[in-house]
Amino acid sequence: MAYDVVFIPGDGIGPEVADAARRCLEATGVTFSWREHIAGEAAIAKFGTPLPDETLKAIRETGVAIKGPITTPIGKGFRSVNVALRKQLDLFACVRPCRSYEGVRAPVKDVNLLIVRENTEDLYAGIEFASGSKEASQLIRQIKQWTDQPLREESGISIKPISAAATERIVRFAFEYAIRHGRKKVTAIHKANIMKHTDGLFMETSRRVAKGYEGRVAFEDRLVDATCMQLVLRPQEFDVLVLPNLYGDILSDLCAGLVGGLGVAPGANIGERTAVFEAVHGSAPKYQGKNKVNPAAMILSGMMMLEHLGERDAARRLEQAVRAVLQEGRHVTYDLKPTRDDPTAVGTREMADAIIATMKRGQTPSDKKGSDPF
Ligand code: NAD
């Protein structure tokens, strides 16, 4: 039976990397019935909105989508499609694996961790009041009545809501993901010593949920600042990290840097009923149409989709092929070569071809690490 999947090419380099991922997914032997829909610049041109209803409807129907990156137009009044998708489909969990690959230059070795970021609350909830606005002034007056905090009159204000319900949902998700993927430890990250009623609630709720998993998955919680330092010094100590929205965003980038950057950073946004798979990187407009950029992050996002669909064997074969090509370092894009102008670099299409050929030969990387995808 073919899987019904919504395919969104995206903007900039999106169509090139999304096509590479689609070809690799098809080469696994799993069959798909692609439903191609547009979002972003092409959708603005056709429908006057970057996220047309028919695209959203299709994702709701299939429950699964793979999407190329989308440009957020600056100063044209359009909000980010990515934020809108998360909100409209309640994709509450952002999952970003960070794994060291032989052949990818990175500041540290042997990293294999997974970031689970809460996607709906925190300072990213979008509740903000501009400096000098009526609402901000009113809020400041009210806060001064309730507390003796010295708030400056012209302050801008962002609200940080964190609830037990959303925290419980994301921490439970992190534990269940850890169990399904054979991971051993979940670390909850917070700053509960300073923000007692938001991060404190996140910490207490995490500890309570963790009790239900005692004996199956280890648990600890740590302060976000100390964690940043430990991630740089000893990233191997971490397994699954669960974080509120803002810290999740920042630590995702930090960890992507630890394993060599955006070219190999896949991701997924997952809700109760729907999941959207996409690379961490953006649409890199300057490389549009040049058949130049690295398709690995998008292909690995496709691999996460295979896992989500229960196609673990295909996911494993695809991940091994990506790893073998990276390790060999011959058929790889410019960003993975020792210098950016290396004449032996191949294009996006050719790197995908090499991954497909490697998978068809059944070639595996010489190291046996990480045979279980993410
Ligand atoms: P970007 O990730 O698009 O590009 C930054 C730089 O990273 C590029 O110039 C390039 O040098 C490098 N890069 C990115 N992807 C690469 C790849 N696959 N292979 C090799 N090198 C790669 O970030 P940006 O320039 O800040 O954003 C461009 C646009 O993308 C913006 O409109 C932004 O809003 C959007 N964006 C979209 C998403 C998404 O759709 N999920 C995510 C991030 C940014």
Describe what this molecule looks like in 3D.
The structure is a single chain. The protein starts with a strand and ends in a 13-residue tail after the last helix. It is globular and about 70 Å long. It has three domains: 210 residues, Isopropylmalate Dehydrogenase; 109 residues, Rossmann fold, CATH 3.40.50; 38 residues, no CATH class. It is built from twelve helices and twelve strands. Helix 7 links the parallel strand 8 and strand 9. It is of the alpha/beta class. Helix 10 packs antiparallel against helix 11. The structure holds nicotinamide-adenine-dinucleotide (NAD). Nicotinamide-adenine-dinucleotide binds next to loops. The site of nicotinamide-adenine-dinucleotide (NAD) has 18 residues, from loops.
Secondary-structure content class? alpha/beta
Strand content: 5-15%
What is the radius of gyration computed over CA atoms, rounded to a whole number of angstroms?
21 Å
- Biggest sheet strand line-up: 2-1-3-12-11-4-5-10-8-9
